[in-house]
Design brief:
This protein has helices spanning 2-20, 30-36, 50-58, 72-85, 105-110, 116-119. By secondary structure, it is mainly alpha-helical. The chain has one domain (28-146). InterPro entries: Dihaem_cytochrome-c (IPR018588), Multihaem_cyt_sf (IPR036280). This is Cytochrome C.
């Protein structure tokens, strides 16, 4: 009986870890919300490691093909907040190719059932448009049970 209870406790703790990987909610940062969400969802800082955020914030003049430059104080403020809440361990802490969330190994594994044609739908546009399928993405909630893939 004791072995069964231990196995159950381990299984339940794994469920908690899996669920935690789908929730990246942190207290919002006003400047991050204002500046980043003016073009795309203000990605939760826990989706990338600190080194990726440092490069992204350090090159806002070439932000994935767009000049997203901000004044020095705002850049430093947002950068410090992203660094403080960045992914620190596990799969999320691995630096993805080109610092793109959608190129991270964990992202690719989580979305392996989504076809290339689905990503190209006008209602989605690209894997970077989290809120197309994850209605709560702006709040850091990526629970797979709440996913709704638009047609």
């Amino acid at each position: 009986m004791k072995k069964i209870l231990i196995a159950l406790a381990v299984a339940l703790s794994c469920v908690g870890v899996a669920h935690a990987e789908r929730s990246f909610a942190v207290a919002p940062h006003a400047k991050h919300q204002q500046e980043c969400s003016s073009c795309h969802v203000a990605y939760p800082p826990g989706l990338l490691p600190a080194a990726s955020w440092e490069r992204i914030v350090g090159h806002l003049n070439k932000h994935f093909g767009t000049d997203a430059s901000l004044d020095a104080a705002t850049t430093a403020d947002i950068g410090a907040w992203l660094q403080a809440h960045a992914a620190r361990e596990g799969r999320l802490a691995q630096e993805p190719q080109q610092d793109r969330i959608s190129r991270a190994g964990w992202f690719v594994r989580q979305h392996d059932e989504v076809s290339a044609n689905t990503w190209k739908r006008a209602s989605i546009g690209s894997p970077a448009n989290c809120s197309a399928c994850h209605a709560e993405a702006a709040r850091g909630n990526f629970n797979e049970h709440q996913v709704r893939i638009p047609k």
